[in-house]
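USER: Note each token:
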Amino acid sequence: MTQKNIVIAGSGFAGVWAALAAARAVSQAGREGEVAITVVSPSAALHIRPRLYETAFDELAPDVSALFATVGVRHLPGRVERIHAADSTLEVSANDGTLTTLRYDRFVLATGSRLFMPDIPGLREHSFNVDQLADAQALDAHLKSLAGRSDRAARTVVVAGGGFTGIETAADMPQRLRAVFGDSADVRVLIVEQAADIGPDLGPGPRPVILEALGALGVDIRTSARVTAIDADGVTLEGGERIAAATVVWTAGARANALAAQVPGEHDRYGRLVADAELRAGEAPAIFVAGDVVQAATDDLGNVAAMSCQHALSLGRVAGHNAAAELVGLPTARYSQPKYVTCLDLGPWGAVYTEGWDRQVKLRDQEAKALKRAINTQWIYPPAADRDAALALADPYYVIVP
């Protein structure tokens, strides 16, 4: 019998759990020797992207090579460059520079998203971000390099974008600046948000808590304002106002990885593929999509999965299971994740935890901070390299919620 091939692009939250779920399905069917599972990504590491506003860099990219090995998943260091859905092949650029073609029977696209970088003068040359691990490390090195300066601009950080990432980054920034300039240093952190309210996507529920926390931390907020230019010495806002700052952190939104555009089917305004309940790409039935590259309904009320690890974990499990299930004769699963929660880190002040798409506040202050710490350091991390335990957690209907 010819061996079947499942290829998974990406080893983030969705990719890792897609691989584990595929291995679980193959194991359940007793078909280990008949189906090969390959993950293609630059390294066998799961970057803990929700924590990149922090500086605990040694904790933010756990190695998953032993985990993959123990469940029979092969890792190919490299990147998928081209997807040829018509003939079920992929062009892969390996880390060693070689080019290869992989044939797949089922393919899972789980390559995540990238920070949205519009055409703003100076944005790419003069701003920092926390989108990827290398970006977060570059920001940290830059902040530390300012230690010898005494001017006000050196002690000023402008965070462009007042959404989830912008708020978490800004809330952590005063203590980071004081670690550089001294505990008594007069520092300034300013969030610039083009919407009329801070946290526009978070809605009014947690906003009073967010405003209270940012106020206590000394973070300034400028709403209904838009950055129109960035240079080495600060930013210019629409209307001509200039703010002197040695550090500008861009956090304004994300777009699906460009590979999603190579898969035929409907795409949303973020570049995500619109998938059915089994997470198939609409016009490519051998391709499943998971994580930040898919728009999938979470319930029957019109809500769709957000670009978040919360949804990527479950999307990966369902996509990986279904990719394997079709090859080994198991029932496929339908993606459903009706419970939605958020836990927003608010720096030393604490955090705010909400439930539901209307984001009703359930916990705040240090009580919510304890939950956020558990989520960030335990719940979203990959399991240990224990085959039975890892496969048990890869059930497509397994959902971690508080």
